Amino acid sequence: SVFMFLAILISLMGLYALASFVIYARVKEIAVRKVLGAGQGTILKMIVSEFTILLLVSTLLAWPIMWLAVNRWLENFAYREEINYFFFLAASLISLAAAGITISYHAYRAASSNPAHALKYE
Length: 122
Hints:
Elements: H1 2-25, H2 27-35, H3 40-74, H4 85-111, H5 115-118
Helix pairs in contact: 1-4, 3-4
């Protein structure tokens, strides 16, 4: 349980760093969008939807691989248990929620920042 918690924590830290890097690289784009009239909701939706699409694709790619791995692991037991798809769905929803909170934090900071600071030297 401790190593599982550490693995989840490390993966969320990596996602936090990735979101920070991507949004930092697009600070000027976000500032220009704000100057041209985009609201906070529009910018939040744009950033969060890009990450959500990537997370959904990676989740859909991981499901068959995990099903094969769990199925092969369960073949070694004397009393075989059927695979319950609820656990796949629950794990996906929990990971999407955790990633959504992590990404929304950076997206909100970028959307609520002053565009003059990002465009000062242009």
